[in-house]
Design brief:
mainly alpha; 316 residues; 79% helix; Na+/H+ antiporter like fold
């Protein structure tokens, strides 16, 4: 068990440091947003560019992984949406955010650092492919569904178009596309440029985890237990299970390391901007509470999953 804590311990220590320095007043929550902007716009794009550009395209473009992760995640997305619609019978916008909480992982801030410690360099390839699924498939669909709540006829089409247009300006998507183009070209970056990109990439992991800790300050779960527990159960248990089933039997992922990476990324808490996205439709409180509870609970679920990785041949 100590070898598992050696992986999860540093991750949650970094989160705890971010929480402590924000709670103690050394940094404010506004500072966390600024640091988060650095990670999203510079650190993670540099990391993604490195992960894609420094490998032959055939090693990066893993169609089996892409299909398995997309299908497993979409199964969870549709399942969460159906549960919120037909069982909870909630508002259409809330249904979209329940599905988002259950199916959209915090791949960049948390998934990559955990996967890097557990699996090594393959984590960068998995992160790049996950970003394609998250940003090109799941988020546009979910944001469009949320916008369809009471919107004027045809407004959801406008929202979908705007979402897709924004994606083309997303630094992480741009970095992935540039990385693919550079890998295909076979060129090599000049030494100073390569080292500069590496410095930005190396700064992303610890800073991203500290930002998560800072954003948890002040969040509360009171009075939302059942709703929060259902979202957390979907995210931490059902999402990785769905991806595991697809990656093992429906669209088998040939590389065992990539198969483990797919399950591990699916087992992460929901994306850190979850409450910010939900704020537009008035669901920020339940989203923030779900983020807090799921992040704390993930210490135990991820530790258990990593233990299974080490001791169960079925997962390998």
């Amino acid at each position: 068990m100590l070898e598992i804590l050696a992986i999860t311990g540093p991750i949650y220590f970094c989160i705890a440091v971010g929480f402590a320095v924000t709670r103690g007043g050394l940094f404010s929550k506004a500072d966390m947003r600024v640091l988060g902007k650095f990670v999203i716009n510079l650190g993670l794009p540099a990391l993604l560019f490195n992960a894609v550009s420094q490998r032959p395209l055939r090693e990066v473009m893993q169609a089996d992984y892409l299909a398995a992760y997309a299908l497993g995640s979409m199964a969870m997305l549709l399942g969460g949406y159906a549960w919120a619609r037909y069982v909870v019978r909630s508002a259409p916008s809330y249904q979209a955010y329940v599905a988002m909480g259950m199916s959209c992982s915090n791949s960049g801030y948390m998934g990559y650092p955990v996967a890097m410690l557990a699996l090594g360099p393959v984590a960068g390839v998995a992160l790049a492919l996950n970003m394609v699924v998250e940003n090109m498939l799941k988020l546009p669909l979910l944001l469009t569904l949320a916008e369809a709540d009471g919107s004027a006829r045809g407004h959801w089409r406008k929202e979908l178009g705007q979402t897709l247009a924004r994606l083309l300006k997303n630094p992480m998507i741009v970095a992935i596309l540039l990385g693919f183009a550079y890998s295909l070209s076979g060129w090599h970056l000049p030494g100073p440029v390569e080292r500069t990109i590496n410095l930005f990439a190396q700064a992303s992991s610890a800073l991203a985890l500290s930002v998560i800790g800072g954003t948890l300050v002040g969040l509360q779960v009171k009075g939302m237990g059942r709703q929060v527990a259902s979202i957390a159960f979907g995210k931490l248990i059902l999402h990785p299970l769905a991806v595991l089933l697809v990656a093992t039997w429906i669209v088998p992922v040939a590389d065992p390391q990539l198969r483990l990476a797919a399950v591990l990324f699916a087992a992460m808490p929901m994306l850190g901007i979850y409450p910010l996205l939900a704020q537009k439709h008035g669901h920020e409180e339940i989203s923030a509470a779900a983020l807090l509870f799921t992040t704390v609970a993930s210490f135990f679920t991820l530790s258990g999953l990593l233990w299974l990785f080490r001791h169960t041949a079925f997962l390998g």
